[in-house]
Amino acid sequence: MRLGGTAALLLLLLVAALVAFLPAVPVQGAVGHPTLGVVNQVPTPTSFTPAMNNLSLPAGSMQVTAVDGVGVTPSTDLLAINFTGITFSGGQFYLLMSQNGLASQSASDVQYSPTFEVADFAANKGTLEAVTNVNGTFYIGEFGSTPVVVGPIAVFVSSAYKYIKVYDGNSGAEAASTQQLIIAAPATATVSATSTLTTTTTSTTSRTTTATLTSESRVTQTATSTLTEAATTIVEPVTYTTVQAVTSTRVETSVVTSTIEQPTTFTSVTVVTTTAKGAGDQDDAAYLVLAAAVVIGAALVALALTRRKA
User: Measuring CA to CA, which residue among 116, 203, 127, 238 is closest to residue 166?
Assistant: First the structure.
């Protein structure tokens, strides 16, 4: 059976009316109130002490200086958030600092923690897991049956930020702390330093010595220069560089021997002697020797003249 146009329209209006009266299912975020307090150490805390009203600590720090106005030891009292009783609607969450304790996100809220996994509580029993971001190192896990996040608050926030909220990604309600934070200015450290100035003075002296050496020699000179500066005497060895010019005179004598072969003309002189026997034999022999010497000398003179002409 087909419905007419009017019947179809009436049916549509009836369905819309029924839907309008159905109960709405609200979108829930993190529900509950995280408890602020202190643990004694990380990453293996053994105790958690909740605050009744407030905790005091510097911006950017996790070391609490007072709980409910009573001074504590910062090194052993670390800011912790107890998540017992918190119900999450998502699998992840992060922390906000807020100027109000409303269970909803405000425009002025500031995220200051990294994003955590809800499963990290049960996954890190006894020893908390360290997670780091620009504000510092945070620790998440459980000790005993207490799920906690331990870590610093934001660095750049004013004292107007007094509450911590838990945001798990849904736009519904947020879990907000009931205890307040009292934020002090970060501690200022004064550093004193002593600087010692050391002055080093270098003296350079150049001297040139010219000498003529006739034999190989070495000249060694040692000098000490004393410089006085600001009533301090600095004794420094100064090394002088001696440059010596050495003039060497070398005389070489070359002897060239030339052999010239020339035809030689010999003059043959025939001496005819007559030997007379008798008492004058000794005188004749002397004359013969003298004559032979004259002939030989003449021959040598002739030979020398012939070579000179050549």
Answer: 116
pLDDT: which is higher, 237 or 103? 103
Q: Are 79 and 152 in contact (CB under 8 A)?
A: yes
DSSP code per residue over 229-249: ETTEEEEEEE-----------
Listed in sequence order, the residues at least 6 apart from 134 whose beta carbon sits closer than 8 Å to its beta carbon are none
- DSSP class of 151: -
The closest of 175, 37, 35 to 93, measured between CA atoms, is: 175
158-167 average pLDDT score: 95
Strands (E), 187-231: 223-229
Higher pLDDT, 207 or 238: 207
Give the confidence band of 11 by pLDDT, cuts at 50, 70, 90: low
Whether the predicted model's global pTM rises above the 0.70 cut: no
Angle at 154 between CA 156 and CA 64, to 5 degrees: 115
CA atoms within 13 Å, Cβ hemisphere of 149? 28
The larger pLDDT score, comparing residue 261 to residue 104, is at 104
Domain boundaries, the chain: 35-184
**For the chain, what is the total number of helices (H) and then of strands (E)?**
3, 17
Degrees, nearest 5: CA angle 61-101-45: 40
Strand locations in the chain (E): 35-39, 48-50, 54-58, 66-67, 70-71, 78-82, 92-98, 110-111, 116-117, 129-133, 136-143, 146-150, 163-167, 175-176, 180-184, 223-229, 232-238
- How would you classify the pairing of strands 146-150 and 136-143? antiparallel
Cβ atoms of 77 and 70 closer than 8 Å:
no
Q: Which segment, 27-36, 181-190, 266-275, is predicted with the most confidence on average? A: 27-36
| 212 vs 303, more confident | 303
